[in-house]
Design brief:
By secondary structure, this protein is mainly α. Helices cover 78% and strands 0% of the residues. The protein has a single domain, classed as Amino acid/polyamine transporter I. Helix 5 packs across helix 7, helix 7 crosses helix 14 and helix 10 crosses helix 18.
Length: 448
Amino acid sequence: MKSQPQWSNRSVFLLAAVGSAVGLGNIWKFPYIVGENGGGAFILVYLFCIALVGIPVLIAEILIGKTAQANPVSAFENLAGKFKASRFWVIFGFIGIITGFLILSFYSVVAGWALEYLAVFLQNDLAGAAPEQVKNHFADLLKSPSQLLFWHSIFMLLTILIVAKGVNQGIEKVISLAMPALFLILIILVIYASQQAGFSEALAYLFTPDFSLISTETTLIALGHAFFTLSLGMGAMMVYGSYLSKNTAVVRLSLSIALIDTLVALLAGLAIFPLIFTYGLEPSSGPSLLFISLPNALLALPFGQFFGIAFFLLLLIAALSSAISILEPVVRFVEQKTQLTRRISAWLMGIIIWLIGISALLAFNEWAEVKLFGRNIFDSLDFLTTNILLPLGGLGISLFATWVLASKSNILSSLGIGNLAYKIWYWLAAIVAPAVILMIAWNGLFIS
């Protein structure tokens, strides 16, 4: 049997778990939805949703991994056998592996855009460019299969090389350098943004509470983001939890992960929106915010090239730390279920994911007319994983941790909490979170 790696210490696990949670969505999606959905009022709703859904499911996922000390499939398989539960639970392990496999294929394409823009700012290629030229640069990037393939390939290569080196020599070493760098760059960017004329407007946009904007729809948005932001449902936190020592208290670490993840998302908003408002741009959602609006603002401001380099380096670190955590469960599964070494498992799975990613990037150009259920390939992969597979994975994790693991073993020492806190967690993870996850899935499938 292959040896089970362990994190050097709890701090490294915390950095790795935060790196998994802090991804591209934190940098552009969360700040935007805060501003559009009630500012400070939305943040209060979001924090309530994090407590209601995000943290209970995060605790459940890490708990399963720490208890089983195995990849997601083997974790469900071994624990179900140990506690004489149905083998049906193994399905949720496979769902986690498949979800991560598919997510990374198109996530890598978007991360490639960050790499390309980092190169652009390093070379100062957009110096003196008019707003329309900046907009055309992004459009031309999406129209070019060769450019998208090049940057997608570079990003996947970086991810594979790190995961292939193993937990201690690869993931741990990179995360120990990358995450402090991410926090440092983010703080520098916030300080720079605070000196701009649009800082007070950004503060109002992000934090002025407008309870009139809080509705059923905004609450569902908050619930959805609370679930997805913590990298739940795809086995990443489970496999990271499997590398923890047996005497590690799960709850305190989970609370820290959720807190830091939210803090980073808010700081990202304070770094981006002052620049947008200073330049007089309307805040936009999705890729246009980061790859059109923000470059335009940076190019118009003092030291824009330097801070452009800093921002897209920040974006790359966030993307890479998440990508590593997404690939790791897939590689660990192959490594534990076959005779293949970690290095071969990483390259084999990485290349297959890279190939699927090619079909995703072609959706922006050569294969734009190819539709799956009315969506192009990129959007289909996004829809399948976000609205179906991730909620299913989270549902299985939450129910298994409470109905099987917690009901048949003493896990208080593992959680590191008292009886009252345990009862609160159990009630939230066993009943409330599954009901909310089903509501999120229903909203994503039939309403959004």
